[in-house]
Amino acid sequence: MAPNPRIEINLDKIKHNATTLKELYELKGIQITGVVKGVFARPEVVKVLIDSGIESIADSKISNIEKMKKANLQATFILLRTPAMSEIQKVVEFADISMNSELEVIRALSAEAKKKKKIHQIIVMVEMGDLREGILLKDVSSFIQEVLLLPNIQISGIGTNFACFGGVIPTEEKMSVFSSLVKKMKRKFGLPFPYISGGNSANHNWLMKTADVGEVNNLRLGESIFLGCETVNGAPIPNLFTDAFSFFAEVIESKLKPSVPIGYRGKNAFGEFISFPDRGIIRRAIVGVGRQDILVSGLTPLQPLEIIGSSSDHIILDTKRTFLKPGDEIAFSLNYGALLSAMTSPSVYKYMTFSTVVNRGSARK
Questions:
Q1: Of 101, 165, 205, 240, which is the most buried if we count CB atoms within 10 A?
Q2: What is the pLDDT of residues 153-204, one digit of tens each?
Q3: Thinking of the domain 10-227, which architecture would CATH place it in?
Q4: Which of 81, 190, 180 shows the shortest CA–CA distance to 137?
């Protein structure tokens, strides 16, 4: 039996998704930046994206960018968030480009780049309402003016973000405002902005429906490549695989037990007070993995089972009419949060698998 818990990663399906999206987006003049934080920048997976023709790779951890560079992967590497002051030296050393929204940080990047006799490129992030990172629209012009005074810093783009913190959707109106801002900055400063990064996998529906992408020439995709869905509604994207990743855990106990805990109850180990519906005696299975290793709420059993709770190292399931015994494996699909946590956990084994995609127009779940 293969070790458990484990995540199986189908590299052929990822390549299919990456190639399909790249071709689809290029029809509208959009280049893809592959976001690999969800797979903890596993070199085997990153190589698949690069081999699919994706030339820029982004991650939010400079340690992951360092790992990819030391693995001799050839791409333009972008730090996906504003650098921490404690990371400045490594950012200049390993990141080709970083996303920025703080002048103090860029001044530090400038000083370090000058010391290293390098030019460090930045993408200026602007706020379009999701209220994560970004400069307010009214301040963008003065911000760029200040940055242009700094030595060894090159502004290579303007970017924005949607649906990550506030859930704000990239509507036609929002994207039009963003493009108008970019046009104004181009005219005022005469900068080419090679990267006009208009968002992420949440922009898929906008891109498919819009007749005019405006100034946008780049989108940052992670979830849509890896899980085959757009992120606003979680809907599958046609002709993509949604099962490139599968999670497996092993049954360590299977017994008939009451459905409601017995005795006076308080909060559980995570400070939660949970109510339990009374279903009488049920057959329950426990698998040997828990919240320490994976976002349990992001798992869906692929058998007719129901997750009824979890602790740090256990997931408890109502097995309904399915009889399970210790040693049996249960397979789960994952959402992005579960993928991120499983790939980050050192306790979850990572298995690379392959399955040749014969007809790229007939991807299936």
A1: 240
A2: 999 999 999 999 999 999 999 999 999 999 999 999 999 999 999 999 999 9
A3: Alpha-Beta Barrel (3.20)
A4: 180
